[in-house]
Structure formats: structure tokens, C-alpha cells
Amino acid sequence: KATQISNVPFLDESSGSDDDCGSHASFRTSTALSENRKSSMPGSPRAVKRGVSMSSLSSESDYAIPPDACSLDGDYSEPEHKLQRTSSYSTDGGICTEPMEKSGYLLKMGSQVKMWKRRWFVLRNRQIMYYKSPSDVIRKPQGQMELNSSCQIVRGEGSQTFQLVTEKRTYFLTADSPNILEEWIHVLQSILRVQVTTSPGVPRSDAKPTVKGWLTKVKHGHSKLVWCALIGKTFYYYRNHEDKCPLGHLPMRESKVEEVDRSCDSDEDYEATGGGLLSSHCTLVIHPQEQSPTYLLIRTKQEKNTWLYHLTVAAGSSNATVGTAYEQLIGKLLDSEGDPSSPLWKHPMLCYSKDGLHTSLTTLPSEALQTEALKLFKSCQLFINVPVEASSVDYHVSLAQTALQVCLTHTELQNEIYCQLVKQTSCRQPQNHSLTQCWQLLALCAPLFLPQHHFLWYIKQHFQRHADPRSEIGKYAIYCQRSVDRTVQAGEREAKPSRMEIVSILLRNPYHHSLPFSIPVHFMNATYQVVGFDGSSTVDEFIQRLNQETGMRKPSHLGFSLFTDDPSGKNLEHCLQGNMKICDVISKWEQALKELHPGKYEGGTRIVKLTYKNRLYFRSQAKGETDRERLLLAFQVSNEIASGRFPVNKELALEMVALMAQVEYGDLDRPGSSSPGGTSPSKMQHLLHQVLDKFYPKRYKQNITAEQLRQLAGRLAEKWMVLQGCSPPECIRIYLTVARKWPLFGTKIFAAKPVFPSLLEDYPVWIAVNEDGISILDYNTMHLKVFYPYSSVLTFGGCRDDFMIVVGQMKERGSGKKSTEKLLFTMAVPKIVEATLLIASYINFRSAPSLLPSPQPCRSKTAANKLWETESRCFFPSMPRSTKGPTLL
């Protein structure tokens, strides 16, 4: 069922021979005819009500033609099967399997009067000519298209429409069925030797809609309820709000948007269509360039006003009658290109007023959001007017977080809060704290989200007008300018500001620094480095700054990653992805802590702990290591040895403990030495026990007596004294040289237990993951049991509460048959996630040679390929060249 919008003609009633240049007189005739006959139109409510059938107006074979594209002049009412719909000819007169000529009916969009017109198209001699009917082919064609190498074929909306782009013009064409469309595209491709492209109809996944919602879209007389979103200057529509790929899109640039007057329609006409539409529903019409009009049926007046305003702005129209009075004034300022001398800047509507708001400043799609906008204004007023004090700063933290979370949840309010704050800071005398705190709230908004369209232009103008390094307000304006530029560059955030961020803005004068926030990053050697960042800093940018300050190479040349601790306090770590924002990480961690301890959370008592350590190890990264990298890697290996995750015997373990003691504490003085720095025997014993507790494998100290422990400390002292005078870098070099003798050095291992039935014994094992593949190690000796290169891994990941690896192996060397083996292991759920992501990271690095770390960046593509081939030969003899990796569950 479809609702026919009857006040604009869809049909081409003109009998003129010039298809593209119909006169105004013929257009008026068309309008009159369509008005006189609209009661018999197949899509009109009255036609449906009286039971007028489609077959009385067009042939049965015209099923694919929209009702409003059917002509009423009789040319198209004859049965279609009497005409030769399509035909193919070969250039030499015989039958050709690759037809180079074709003819048939297509619908063509008029160039001046935007209506679909049914024309007979003939393709011959690299030319397309079109006529009103097949019988007119002996006459002069109504138009023709020259086909050459510059032509393009673009698939349009739906399965039956395409565009033929020539040097002079773009033709919009629709076939009667998808099969006929494919025939035409196939023939045109054969002639033009070009690839068919798709129109840019899929928005970026991170694109934020200006306005969105369910609307009834009417085109060619057919209506459909679709989910609509205006993103940038393009109108997209989807089957539902979860779809990523739209059904179609309309370019809004230079389109015409207007409201349709439907006061003459009655409710019973719309009820007859069965679509649940009423005459009280509002209707907008969009006239895109080179396309037929599209109608949008909207249920409420508030929604209609919102869509009308934002569509008009996206189209670039200067319609001064849409939007609120505040929005209209901004539009006028934009039309004057922000003339500084314009009196509009001091218009009472745009300036601060002691009176509260009684209605929203921006157009909002529902009464509920308009009510929420007024609540938002009251929250902002409390934040602005109550003086900030360090002892009670949590009151302002709560107000800011609540208000900004509302804006993140209801994106329609983001324009509103900016307009409210800009109004509060315009033409206002800096008499007390209120103006400063209003600018501070703006400083919190800027890194979080940005307003849309000309609101963004307006706030940039506002910041520019107030920027002045000589005053505090001017400094905040400059800070907001920087924040907006960074947000435009790095994108918007996901979470509300953290307590740390809000306190920094309120109490620490953020405008003094380009990086107003800072947080310590901890290393495996128990040291830390304080790193600065701003509201838009990503994890990648944060790590790059950290590496510069600590003397480490670029992140692409080493496998170090940033980790956070778990808010629950458990011994868990979470690896951070490079595109995440540091402020989002801190905020989400704080929120998780509050949810774990509701009512007990005290702001500032505990903050997130960031740790920087090695996650991916590649043998090629050893060349070019800096001293700092070696130091951190050695301490990480030492931690693995102490926890029993690195295979060393007791004697070797003691020697490695001595090396770490020399690095950590320096030379060991002999007891009772006459030198001023000599140590007493008791102090020396305490130091030795401290070193053993920190670096010696814990499993070797279990069940030993006090005497055995004293003897162990004595042997450690002997080995330590041998290293007297050895510098820390030299000790680290020796330590890593010894550690790298283990073939699986750099491997991350996970404790697991095979699940029956399994080819492995029912005893705990270690799952070792490194750059070569996945190894299964004996739990006690850490000897290799079985190894699976990544080329044999088919599937891996969490399977219910277990970790699963599916591998494919050759049954016999001579035969090409493969056997599939499934391995199931019981593991802690966090470790399942960690192991899965680690395997995926190694496979991704292996699949992309350019991502492999190397001591020096490759200067040519050939060098990069050689590196990849060399490593593949050494470590992946059977790995295929395809970049397709295993399936990740």
C-alpha cells in the first residue's frame, strides 16, 4: 500500500519530441492533467478506496514501474509483450555470445523536469540513442549519449537503478527488473572496458548523525518505514537502526527541502492505504540534484521541525524561516560571514540574560527532549553559580558528569548545551566566579563532543572573539580553541569526563599547558614516568610521548604495550588498544570501580594504574635495542623467572639473581669492611634475603630449612661479589644473552588443563604463544610437547568456558589429505581473552609484513618484502603467502 502525494506532478504528460527540454506550457499542462486525473492514479488513496486496479492503467508486465511513473496518454498502456523489450545484435550480423549492441525500455530521469520517463533505448556503434517508442526509431532520436573511455557506470539505489556518467551529463536510468539491469551493465562494461562502481552510500562507522529516527519514506508512490540518519550532508535510510549498510542515500548538497501542505487530504483517504498514516502527519519533500523527489512522512510536529531545520542546513539553503529564533540568528551571522561589526552579535537572544530559559535554544525532535534541555540548563546554572572550593569539589564533579552524560546519551542535546553556554558567556561582565566556571564547563565539553554544522562555526567564532592571552577568560577561550581543533582531528570521546579531568580543569589552570593532564606510568623495574596528555590524546600518542621521554624506539619497532590494572583489585591486567582515548580509559575505570563498590566509592582514594611492558616479542627487534628497552625487558624476564614461568635450574637461577642484584643495588660490600660504606653482617643477611625474595624462583624456596636458606644466601653473596665493578648495562647484556638461549624466549605462557577427550594427557600444561606459533609445554619441566605453526591453526578462541584451538595437519606426507584436530583447555576466563588477543595480534603482524618491527625502517618496498620472505623461510616454512588468517571465535 502506498500513499500518493498528489500536489506535485510525477508524470511526463508532455507530447513534445524534445525529451530533456519540455516547455513551461507543457509542464503546466502536465500539472493540470495530473490534478484532473489524480483520483484515478493507482497509488492515490481514493483509487485504492474505489478498488481501481493497476491492470486497468498499465500492462501486467509493467509491475516494476512505479505507479507515478506510468503515463496516462496511452503510449504505455498497450501490452508490453507486443514490443521487443530487449534484443542483441553482433557487429558482423551473426550470433554473438558477447553482445555489443542492445535495445530495450528503460526509465530515464528528465534533466529539467525531474520525472521518470519511459523511453526506448538503442545501443549501436558506441552510441546510445533513445526514443519515445520502438516505432520512432526511424525518426530523429530524442537524445543520444556518446560512449568513450571517460564514461563511468555507477550502481544506484535499489537493485534496478544505475547511473551512466558521460563527459557532458550524468544519466539516471532504471530497468524493469534486476536481470535487465545486469544485461545493460554487462553490455556497457564490454564496450567501455570499465569496472562498475558503487555510489558512496556507506557512511564511516564512526560518523555521528546530526539527527536520526523512524520516518516513512515515499518515492515513486511507494511508501516504506525506514530508519533515517542525516550524516554530514548526506541523508541515509536503513531497514532498522542496527544496520550498517544503508538501503540508499540522498545527497543533500544544493538540494531543495520544503514542507508539503496536506491540509486538503482527509483521514479516511490515508486510513484506506492501510499504512496507519493520518492527514495530521507532517510531510517534507527533498528535491536532490538530478534525482526525483523523495517525500518523508513524519508523525509529530517537533520531529518535523527538527528534520526540516537540519535538512535545510545540510542542503546549504539560507531559508530564514526554519529553526528557532536563536538558530535563525546564527544563520544570519553565517550569511554575513561572521562580520565583526554586525549588530547581531549583541542581539539580546544571543547574549547573557539573568532570566532563565523557558524553551530550548535549538530545535529538538520531542517534548521529552525539550523538557530535558531545560533540566540541563538548571544543572549548568548550579555548576556555574556555586563557587568551586577544593574541599567540596566533588559536588561540581557530580554536576558536570551528570550533565555531560545526558548529552552523550541524547546526542540531540549536544548542540543545545553549547548554545546555552555560549549564550551565558556572551556580553557578560566578569564580575565574579560565575563567568570563569562557565568557561570551565565549556572547556570540559570541547574534548568530549562537538556541535553540528554551523553551530560548530558559531562556537569557533565565539572563541576567536574572546581569545586574549592577557586575561583569564581569554586564556580559557584559547584553551577551548585548541581543544576543538584536537577533537576535530582525533575524533570525539565515548565516556564522560573522569574526576581527575574535572578537578584538573577546575583547580589547576589548564590553559598554562598544552598537555594539561598527567598520570604516572609504571615499569617492571619498580620505577615510573609521569606523562602529560590532553583530552583527545589516544593511547598511541601517549605511548609515543612516553617513548620519547624514556629513550625508547618508536612503538612500531618494539612490542611494548600499555596495560591497566583491574578495578576489582584482582591480579588482572587489560591491554589498551592504540585508538582508545586515555581520558576514556580513566573514566571507564573509575565508573567500573564505582559499580563494584556502590556507596563506598571515595573520589581520589584510588586511581587507575598504568603499566608499560613487553607484549609481543620478535627476534628481529633485538638489533637496535636501547639500554632502556634492555633494562625493562630484563626485569620482565626476572619477574617470569621468580613466578616459575621461565625454565632455569637452581644454579643458573642463582647466577641470574646475582646479576639482577648488581643492577638493582650495585656492588656488595664485604661484611666488617673498614671502609665507611661497609655493612654489618646482619644488614648484609637482610639484603641477601630481600634479593632472594624478589628475584629467586619461589618454587625453589618451598620447604627449605633456615639453614639451607642461610647457605643459599652465602652462595648468592659469593656470586654477587664476583660481579664487583660490573656496570648495570653490562650486567643486563649478560643477563639477556643467557636468557635468550632458551628457544622460546619472549613467549607468553598460560597455565591450562586439557579437557577430555584429548590427545594430551590429563595433566596441567603450559600454552606458550610466540611469533612462530603455539606450543604446548610440560608443566613441570617446560619441555616442548607439541608445536603448531600459525599456518596450521584454523580456529582459536573461547568456546563456552574453555579455550579451543583447531589445527589442520597433513595425514601423510605423500597424500594431500589433511586431518583436523581440536584441542580444548580449561583456563581462567581473563586468560582466555588475553591468549586469544595475543594469538590474533601475532597473526595480524605476520599477515602484514609492513607491521613487522625492524631495527631500521625499510626504505623501499623491495626491502620490506625481502625481510618478510627471510623471516617466513626461517620460521614459517609451510606458511602460505595468503594474508587470510584463521577464524577468530
- Class of the largest domain in CATH? Mainly Alpha
CATH architecture of the largest domain: Alpha Horseshoe
Residue stretches low in confidence (pLDDT < 50, at least 5 long) are 1-99, 265-275, 851-889
Shape: globular
CATH superfamily membership of the largest domain: MyTH4 domain
| Largest sheet entry | 9 strands, mixed
Which fold name is given in CATH as the topology of the largest domain?
Answer: Serine Threonine Protein Phosphatase 5, Tetratricopeptide repeat
How many beta-strand runs? 29
Q: Any idea how many domains?
A: 5
Description:
- The chain is α+β, with helices and mostly antiparallel strands and 889 residues long.
- It folds into five domains: 211-322, PH-domain like; 327-511, Alpha Horseshoe (Serine Threonine Protein Phosphatase 5, Tetratricopeptide repeat), CATH 1.25.40.530; 517-615, Ubiquitin-like (UB roll) (Roll); 627-739, Up-down Bundle (Acyl-CoA Binding Protein), CATH 1.20.80; 748-888, PH-domain like (Roll).
- Helix content is 35%, strand content 19%.
- It contains 22 helices and 29 strands.
- The strands form four sheets. Strands 1, 2, 3, 4, 5, 6, 7, 8 and 9 form a nine-stranded mixed sheet that branches. Strands 25-24-23-22-28-27-26-29 form an eight-stranded mixed sheet, covered by helices on one side. A seven-stranded antiparallel sheet has the order 13-12-11-10-16-15-14, covered by helices on one side.
- α10 (433-445) packs parallel to α12 and α18 packs across α19 (706-722).
- The longest helix has 19 residues, at 367-385.
- The two termini are 43 Å apart.
- Residues 1-99, 265-275 and 851-889 have low confidence and may be disordered.
